[in-house]
Design brief:
This protein has about 850 residues and is an alpha+beta fold. The chain folds into 5 domains: about 110 residues, PAS domain (Beta-Lactamase, 2-Layer Sandwich), CATH 3.30.450; about 150 residues, GAF domain (Beta-Lactamase); about 170 residues, Beta-Lactamase; about 170 residues, 2-Layer Sandwich (Heat Shock Protein 90), CATH 3.30.565; about 120 residues, Rossmann fold (3-Layer(aba) Sandwich). It is built from 23 helices and 35 strands.
């Protein structure tokens, strides 16, 4: 390869040399083979001797059939047939490439007129299908309420999947610079979150490459790279390795990583509508080799995350559009009665503030001036209006640094730094102008952004910067920026205000009446459209959110409904998906939410055995009835009772009569929340039955009929021998005793491990270490002050018994988690160790830890 000094003169501000430097070289952990459409070998990597057993340079020009087994060649031809296009890569796992029994992972893609085969040793002895982790990871990402939480969750899940020390979500800005907006760390390294990186760190050419090749990896920055022979093809052109996963990277980038102290890295591109939105950037401070299956799962995860990100941004924009439409309705309703625009100024500016936040507002109509909040005075605004006549034209015009384009604004910079102007007439122009005050911003750069290039020891050569210390930049004279959604809302508002002005200009009463009728039709149509949009973007989560006052309430409501379904599912699966007891379902729910009031819940009549397909439906209904009773009904005080009567109808159907008495006086609800909808509509809609709910003063009365199709039979209730249920201790009771040290989580499933980590952190554990194998757990146990452990019983081929034995020897308290039930480890040395059964929740784990403390 030619050094940079031998290349033509290039623009140092745009070229990172990566596409030039690394053509013809690959990373050493794999092999590369390219062949023409007639299967003649064109290029081969010079480390291929160990793979094919002969000098790679002697292979060029020979037929690929001399080196590849017939079955492998068949599989490769098949994958070439289904290649999606020039940017597509097909993968084959555990293929016997040369017919000697060795397994390899192979990627194949088209490069010009050549087909490129990339070969890596298959990671044997691993049972886990990492691609299968992606679906549950994505399902958890879907639950993120905001874009920030979505990105944070994505970083956590990718770190859990790959094991990197740091995973960042890095968003590109318009000028090519980037910001770390989310991050997940292993706890022992510094955070980059909130830091900005100059555009020169990832130049335009590198960004174009990231947009083509979704995943790039460096397993060890100190590994040598391997040349591809020959350096050029017959026509003198080098082999294009843009889509190669083995493709080596620029020495400049390697030097950049070394300057950061990073030994291994990976990046997953985040694409939005065909454009590079950002990267999921991964760093590791020691060499890290990832199998092809893990990288494939990471790439798939990145694609799904990009989809969810676009969906979340689209939903956010749709919400803003819906708010704009509601604002239109509200403004039209307030000013439709007549008078001038300024007479209704106070009313509609208050409505605008809910959609577009501002610190001051000016109305300028027919030469009249009215202002509220922090704004320039009338004389200053008169001059500004002349400027707006030239700048704003007939559309919305905005700036977050007005003094930069209109110098006289510096005189009133202490009042406003940014503005958004809405012209509401033609000529002479009238305006509604929103102002925002100065917002001093401190940007944290990872190094001085102005110092992007230096001369290297070899003359005119790019040298990556060596310092990544925080460099702070203070920006003054700027307001908070006006977002795309706010500008779009302002444009809709401008059209609304234009319509208002036109309507208010009609003096005749008859014309005003006609305008009012047209307005009513417009409002009705817009309301109809708003309802349609809301129906499309709201689902179960949105419905549940309406019942919650806070995010915590929302999480509790949704979580409790999910737990109710989980408990019902667990009851069904314990009996091998056979009909299950309705008595037991009711008792399970009252145990969970009314454990101190069990004697006040009376069940009479035969036990009904409900079919599995209807069991979860009834579980949701019983759950809502129970929680409503605990909050507002008979179980909300100490005297109320619930009488539940089960009976068999003449046609074999199930009749469930729920009566509450003795509690607080009951009033019919004035609105129907999602919980009421579940109670009243689920059984009719899902099961074809009926539901009747009334609210007499003495207590709620509900009657449900479940058709015979969903009832397997009735039987005499068995004698229930019940434990005395006590509430588990609060986290504060054991935080001081256990959470001062390290919490060890031994779990080979990434998703479950992260859920367990979240639970323990919620209990007060600040240092949580996750291990997926016995070896990793023992390493943590030897090097950290572990004060508590949570062990998954089954770890693939192994169990966590050796770890439990070591914990016993050190007198460290621990609990088991198991999918096999509580009896799986209740013998021998581990007799009496608490077991939480999957799926478990916060209350289950808290109760188990409480039993550990009680035994100590």
């Amino acid at each position: 390869m030619a050094d940079f000094q031998e290349l033509p003169t290039v623009d140092l501000t745009t070229c990172d040399l990566e596409p030039i430097h690394i053509i013809g070289r690959i990373q050493s952990f794999g092999w590369l083979l390219s062949f023409s459409s007639d299967w003649i070998i064109n290029h081969v990597s010079l480390n291929a001797t160990e793979l094919f057993g002969r000098d790679p340079r002697d292979m060029v020009g020979l037929s690929a059939t001399e080196f590849l087994s017939p079955s492998a060649l068949h599989d490769i031809r098949t994958r070439l047939q289904i290649l999606g296009g020039a940017g597509a890569v097909e993968r084959i796992f555990e293929i016997d490439l040369v017919g000697d029994g060795r397994g390899f992972d192979v990627a194949v893609h088209a490069s010009g007129r050549s087909f490129v085969l990339e070969i890596e040793p298959h990671e044997s002895g691993k049972r886990r299908d990492f691609v299968s982790y992606v679906r549950p990871m994505i399902e958890r990402l879907r639950q993120s309420p905001t874009i920030e939480q979505l990105c944070t969750s994505a970083a956590r899940h990718l770190r859990g999947l790959t094991g990197f020390d740091r995973v960042m979500v890095y968003r590109f800005e318009g000028d090519g610079a980037g910001e770390v907006i989310a991050e997940s760390l292993n706890g022992a390294i510094d955070s980059f979150k909130g830091q900005h990186f100059p555009a020169s760190d990832i130049p335009a050419q590198a960004r174009r490459l990231y947009a083509r090749n979704m995943l790039r990896i460096i397993s060890d920055v100190d590994d040598p790279t391997v040349p591809v022979d020959p350096a050029t093809g017959p026509n003198g052109d080098p082999l294009d390795l843009s889509m190669s996963g083995l493709r080596a990277v620029s020495p400049i980038h390697i030097e950049y990583l070394r300057n950061m102290g990073v030994r291994a890295s990976m990046s997953v591109s985040i694409m939005r509508r065909g454009k590079l939105w950002g990267l999921m950037a991964c760093h590791h401070y020691s060499p890290l080799v990832l199998s092809y299956s893990v990288r494939t799962a990471a790439e798939l995860f990145g694609e799904f995350f990009a989809y969810l990100l676009e969906q979340k941004e689209t939903d956010f924009a749709a919400d803003k559009r819906a708010e704009s439409m509601r604002l239109h309705d509200e403004i039209m309703a307030r000013v439709a009665g007549g008078g001038s625009l300024l007479e209704a100024f106070d009313d509609f500016t208050d409505a605008i503030r809910h959609v577009i936040p501002f610190d001051g507002v000016v109305g300028w109509v027919d030469g009249r001036f009215i202002a509220h909040g922090a704004t320039p005075d009338q004389a200053q605004f008169t001059q500004l209006a002349r400027f707006l006549n030239t700048a704003g034209a007939s559309t919305v015009w905005s700036s977050d640094a007005i003094a930069a384009v209109y110098p006289p604004a510096a005189e009133w910079g202490d009042k406003a730094a940014g503005l958004l102007a809405l012209p509401v007439s033609r000529s002479p122009r009238d305006y509604i102008v929103l102002f925002r005050s100065e917002q001093v911003r401190e940007l944290k750069w990872a190094g001085n952004p102005e110092k992007t290039f230096e001369l290297g020891p070899n003359g005119a050569r790019l040298t990556p910067r060596r310092s990544f210390e925080i460099w702070r930049e203070e920006r003054r004279g700027q307001s908070l920026p006006w977002t795309v959604e706010e500008v779009s809302a302002a444009e809709s508002l401008r059209i609304t205000l234009l319509e208002v002005v036109l309507r208010l200009s009609d003096a005749a009463h008859s014309e005003r009446e006609q305008a009012s009728r047209q307005q009513d039709m417009l409002i009705a149509e817009l309301n109809h459209r708003v309802r349609n949009i809301l129906n499309l973007i709201r689902g179960l989560v949105s419905q549940s959110k309406e019942s919650a006052a806070t995010i915590d309430d929302f999480a509790e409501i949704v979580g409790s409904r999910i737990q109710a379904l989980a408990r019902a599912h667990d009851q069904v699966t314990r009996k091998e998906w056979s009909p299950s007891s309705l008595h037991e379902l009711i008792r399970t729910e009252t145990d969970a939410y009314a454990s101190q009031s069990l004697d006040r819940v009376v069940i009479e009549g035969p036990d009904a055995l409900v079919a599995p397909n209807a069991f979860t439906t009834l579980a949701l209904v019983i759950h809502e009835l129970t929680t409503n009773s605990c909050k507002y009904g008979a179980l909300s005080d100490t005297s109320g009772t619930i009488q539940i009567t089960l009976s068999r109808g003449d046609d074999g159907s199930l009749e469930l009569d729920w009566r509450e008495e003795g509690g607080p006086p009951v009033k019919a609800p004035t609105r129907r929340g999602f919980g009421s909808t579940i109670i009243e509509r689920t059984i009719p809609h899902e099961l074809g039955g009926s539901a009747s709910v009334v609210y007499p003063a003495e207590g709620l009365h509900a009657l449900f009929i479940v058709p015979v199709d969903h009832v397997s039979g009735f039987e005499t209730p068995g004698a229930h021998i019940r434990e005395v249920v006590t509430e588990p201790p609060e986290a504060s009771e054991f935080t001081a005793r256990l959470a001062s040290g390290t919490a060890l989580i031994v779990e080979d499933n990434v998703i479950i491990a992260m859920e367990a980590e979240d639970l323990l952190r919620g209990f007060g554990f600040t240092d949580c270490r996750v291990a997926g194998s016995v070896e990793s757990a023992m390493h943590i146990l030897e090097n950290a002050e572990v004060s508590f452990a949570m062990l998954d019983v089954n770890l693939g081929k192994d169990t966590s018994a050796p770890v439990a034995t070591a914990l016993n020897e050190r007198a460290i308290p621990f609990i088991f988690a198991s999918g096999y039930g509580e009896r799986s480890l209740q013998t021998g040395a581990f007799r009496g160790v608490p077991v939480v059964t999957k799926p478990y929740g916060e209350r289950d784990v808290r109760a188990a830890i409480g039993r550990v403390l009680k035994g100590r």
